[in-house]
């Protein structure tokens, strides 16, 4: 290559290199400006919009907003175009530079006769560079290690510890600590029972007396479906408004049942985008407050798919008179104070559940019991009512369950009893430690357990009805496969077990021997569960008719009261009142 | 990743196989093992006539030039060097291993699980401090939809960071060994009379042969 050409390519190389650097700098500056531009939310436009809202007839202002908006959008798209064009120019410049350099270097591809090689000095120089390079690398690595050392690990470990410190209590070495905790909690409970005169605010959780006076959870005390209330109505008609004190539409639908504390009644409602907790004045039906469950850390942006007959708010709430607790299909759990202010909220993870989560919440002293039997990693957990932190969490090797926990006192101890394929299991409510489990159930379990006089009853469609006698070693007392339920839970008394089916059949068994005493076929099926009130069983069919019959060895129907609206919920009871949630409305029944 | 790839592509226009020669850890191991190969190409088929035509012909800089005997070091100096190297190589492995172990958190950030845990942690922090401006995060949403709990993710990430202690130590130790051996290579002088391909660095492309007059002569004949 002649020297003239060489010079030309050299100039091209220098020129393109300079041009590429210049364009690169411009691109960076432009990109910084572009990333700060937001034509949709420009502050100046927002301010002008605010002024326009105050003076909507100001046409000049409207025009000004339009022109500024146009300008802002133009600037945005011009920057975008500039970046794109700049990118092409940079690419072209770099390509030309590479070509020029290649031509220049190819011109030099001639064997160069080097001067006498001084290998010794060359190696010594290379060694120095190697040592310098190595030391620099070590220094950089050490600085980086110093800056990040334990930072990330500690963050994660701390998060795990905050979330689940007491879950370690399941390990054997901590059992002693748990026993102490259990004793302490029992002592606390006893103490609290003796100081009923204390103001409510001074106790973290209600006394047994307070709980009995209210209707704090799904199916009353412990979720066992047995309530003790006076003057409960037996006659009403939702169509003719006989004995209907008030009726009000719930803002969002939900299949959860009402709960009561004092003069307040709570339900929840949800759809795919909104989740709400409602508090009504139970005497007037007035909506006192609505708490919107949003901005929960970790909550998924979209709700999981659920079936129409389960919905996003199937689980019934729980309250201890200080706070009300709710759970939704997307895993959000929230605690709201009695005035509707959020106390805490957390997300337990999206439920792996093809119908939608329906297990209701249960309370035991200062713990909120959550049956979290999902597709993977099923567990039962207790959350601290004050903070929402996990107190204990016990993994369960079960399939998805739609049943709810019940808490029963067997005289010797208090147990949380859960039903899911393949077993009925009991847990210590203080520690989460499994007391016992018996394999006797299978399928998609919907009905919760029932308990009376030392016997636990569990059932599921296509499986069986099992009676489990508690004791040192719990064992199956009797089983039957004639009547089984897939949604409503059974109810038990000392002598009888009443089994309700979703297709309308009701059967009564002797609770100790499993002997069938009577059966009756109603014309409409049941989704709501029965409640025993003063020896009468209240049972709502899917059309909203409440059948009341005596809990005895003979079928004795007292009344059938229409609501005038479909219902799949379980009623709530107070002295002289019944509260029923229909598909759309909430009813108060009384005289 | 794309930027680094582009840099290597552009650099490859001027420097032959830059990644393979200077950054690939497997290349380092291949280099070591190639040195023990029994058969290797030669530049000249007979005796080198020291014409120096092949001197700069190798694009990989893999031709060792002749070293003159007059710079041969005395035995005492050699013995001292040997002793220093015998101490310095294990020391460099140790230092490299220690530094690598300390670097575990920095290195662990390349792990997808640790990255996801960091994302979830940052997301939660924003949700707590500034819930009104919670940005959409596809990774976090994907994680939520998986049904796994945050506690499990954080535990897995913490375990992964712990695993990187061992990984970092091994990588650091290896780099220490590489530095040590390079230092040793630059401290020992081998005496050659001919231009010979370096067994460790030569790719046997044979380009140097085209510069050898003896080869050309043989081919013509």
Structure description:
The complex is a heterodimer of chains A (591) and B (221). In chain A, 28% of the residues lie in helices and 28% in strands. Chain A has 2 domains: 3-108; 177-590, YVTN repeat-like/Quinoprotein amine dehydrogenase (Methylamine Dehydrogenase, Chain H). Chain A is elongated, with a radius of gyration of 36 Å. Chain A has 591 residues and is of the alpha+beta class. Chain B is an all-alpha fold and 221 residues long. Chain B has a domain at 73-188. Chain B has helices at 2-11, 18-22, 25-34, 75-102, 104-108, 112-129, 138-146, 150-187, 213-220; strands spanning 63-64, 196-197. In chain B, helix 4 packs antiparallel against helix 8 and helix 6 packs across helix 8. Chain B is elongated. The model of chain B has no long low-confidence stretch (mean pLDDT 85). At the A-B interface, helix 3, helix 4 and helix 5 of A face helix 4, helix 5, helix 6, helix 7 and helix 8 of B.
Which segments of chain B are poorly predicted (pLDDT under 50) over 5 or more consecutive residues? Answer: none
Low-confidence stretches of chain A: 110-116, 164-202
The number of distinct helices of chain B, counting runs of at least 4 residues, comes to 9
Domain tally of chain A: 2
Q: Indicate the overall shape of chain A.
A: elongated
Question: Helix and strand layout, with pairings?
Answer:
The complex is a heterodimer of chains A (591) and B (221).
Chain A: H1 3-36, H2 43-54, H3 59-106, H4 119-148, H5 151-164, H6 175-194, H7 208-213, E1 226-227, E2 244-249, E3 259-261, E4 264-270, E5 275-281, E6 287-292, E7 318-319, E8 323-327, E9 332-337, E10 342-347, E11 362-364, E12 367-372, E13 379-384, E14 390-395, E15 406-409, E16 414-420, E17 423-427, E18 434-439, E19 450-452, E20 455-459, E21 465-469, E22 475-480, E23 491-492, E24 496-500, E25 505-510, E26 516-521, E27 531-533, E28 536-540, E29 546-550, E30 557-561, E31 572-574, E32 577-581, E33 585-590
Parallel strand pairs in A: 1-27
Antiparallel strand pairs in A: 2-33, 3-4, 4-5, 5-6, 7-8, 8-9, 9-10, 11-12, 12-13, 13-14, 15-16, 16-17, 17-18, 19-20, 20-21, 21-22, 23-24, 24-25, 25-26, 27-28, 28-29, 29-30, 31-32, 32-33
Chain B: H1 2-11, H2 18-22, H3 25-34, E1 63-64, H4 75-102, H5 104-108, H6 112-129, H7 138-146, H8 150-187, E2 196-197, H9 213-220
Helix pairs in contact in B: 4-8, 6-8
């Amino acid at each position: 290559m002649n020297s003239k050409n060489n010079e030309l390519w050299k100039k091209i190389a220098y020129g393109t290199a300079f041009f590429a650097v210049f364009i690169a700098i411009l691109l960076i500056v432009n990109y910084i400006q572009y990333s700060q531009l937001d034509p949709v939310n420009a502050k100046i436009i927002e301010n002008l919009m605010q002024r326009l809202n105050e003076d909507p007839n100001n046409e000049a202002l409207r025009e000004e907003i339009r022109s500024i908006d146009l300008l802002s959008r133009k600037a945005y798209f011009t920057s975008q175009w500039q970046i794109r064009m700049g990118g092409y120019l940079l690419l072209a410049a770099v390509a030309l530079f590479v070509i020029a350099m290649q031509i220049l270097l190819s011109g030099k591809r001639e064997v160069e006769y080097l001067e006498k090689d001084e290998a010794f000095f060359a190696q010594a120089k290379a060694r120095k560079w190697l040592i310098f390079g190595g030391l620099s690398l070590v220094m950089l690595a050490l600085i980086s290690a110093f800056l990040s050392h334990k930072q990330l690990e500690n963050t994660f470990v701390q998060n795990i510890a905050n979330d689940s410190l007491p879950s370690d209590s399941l390990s054997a070495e901590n059992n002693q600590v748990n026993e102490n905790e259990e004793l302490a909690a029992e002592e606390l409970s006893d103490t609290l029972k003796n100081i009923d005169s204390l103001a409510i605010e001074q106790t973290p959780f209600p006394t047994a007396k307070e709980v009995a006076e209210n209707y704090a959870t799904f199916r009353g005390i412990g979720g066992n479906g047995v309530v003790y209330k006076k003057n409960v109505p037996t006659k009403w008609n939702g169509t003719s408004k006989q004995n209907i004190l008030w009726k009000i539409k719930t803002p969002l639908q939900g299949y959860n049942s009402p709960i009561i504390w004092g003069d307040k009644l709570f339900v929840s409602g949800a759809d795919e985008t909104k989740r709400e907790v409602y508090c009504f004045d139970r005497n007037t039906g007035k909506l006192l407050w609505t708490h919107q469950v949003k901005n929960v850390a970790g909550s998924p942006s979209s709700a999981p798919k659920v079936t129409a007959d389960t919905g996003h708010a199937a689980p019934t709430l729980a309250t201890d008179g200080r706070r009300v607790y709710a759970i939704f299909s997307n895993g959000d759990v929230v605690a709201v104070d009695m005035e509707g202010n959020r106390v805490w909220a957390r997300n337990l993870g999206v439920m792996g559940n093809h119908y939608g989560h329906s297990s209701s919440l249960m309370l035991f002293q200062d713990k909120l019991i959550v049956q979290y039997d999902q597709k993977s990693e099923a567990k039962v957990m207790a959350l601290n009512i004050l903070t929402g932190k996990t107190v204990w969490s016990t993994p369960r090797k079960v399939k998805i369950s739609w049943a709810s926990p019940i808490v029963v006192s067997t005289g010797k101890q208090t147990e949380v009893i859960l039903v899911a394929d393949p077993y009925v299991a009991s847990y210590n409510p203080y520690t989460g430690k499994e007391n016992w489990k018996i394999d006797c159930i299978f399928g998609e379990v919907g009905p919760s357990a029932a308990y009376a006089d030392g016997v636990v009853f569990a059932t599921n469609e296509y499986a069986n009805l099992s009676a489990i006698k508690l004791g040192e070693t719990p064992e199956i007392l009797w089983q039957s496969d004639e009547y089984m339920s897939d949604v409503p839970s059974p109810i038990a008394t000392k002598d009888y077990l009443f089994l309700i089916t979703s297709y309308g059949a009701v059967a009564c068994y002797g609770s100790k021997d499993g002997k069938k005493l009577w059966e009756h076929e109603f014309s409409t099926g049941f989704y709501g569960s029965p409640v025993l009130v003063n020896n009468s069983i209240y049972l709502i069919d899917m059309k909203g008719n409440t059948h009341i019959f005596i809990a005895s060895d003979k079928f004795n129907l007292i009344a059938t009261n229409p609501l005038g609206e479909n219902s799949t919920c379980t009623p709530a009871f107070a002295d002289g009142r019944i509260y029923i949630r229909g598909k759309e409305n909430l009813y108060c029944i009384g005289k | 990743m794309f930027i680094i790839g582009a840099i290597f592509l552009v650099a490859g226009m001027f420097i032959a196989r830059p990644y393979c020669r200077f950054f690939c850890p497997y290349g380092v191991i291949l280099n070591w093992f190639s040195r023990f190969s029994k058969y290797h190409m030669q530049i000249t088929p007979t005796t080198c006539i020291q014409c120096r035509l092949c001197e700069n012909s190798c694009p990989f800089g893999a031709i060792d030039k002749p070293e003159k005997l007059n710079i041969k070091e005395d035995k005492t100096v050699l013995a001292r060097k040997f002793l220093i190297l015998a101490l310095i190589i294990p020391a460099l492995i140790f230092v490299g291993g220690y530094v690598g172990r300390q670097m575990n958190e920095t290195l662990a950030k390349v792990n997808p699980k640790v990255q996801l845990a960091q994302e979830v942690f940052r997301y939660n922090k924003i949700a707590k401090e500034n819930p009104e401006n919670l940005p959409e995060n596809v990774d976090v949403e994907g994680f939520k939809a998986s049904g796994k709990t945050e506690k499990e993710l954080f535990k897995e990430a913490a375990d992964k960071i712990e695993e990187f202690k061992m990984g970092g130590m091994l990588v650091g130790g290896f780099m220490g060994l590489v530095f040590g051996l390079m230092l040793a290579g630059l401290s020992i002088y081998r005496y050659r009379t001919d231009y010979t391909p370096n067994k460790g660095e030569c790719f046997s492309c044979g380009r140097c042969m085209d510069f050898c007059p003896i080869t050309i002569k043989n081919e013509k004949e």
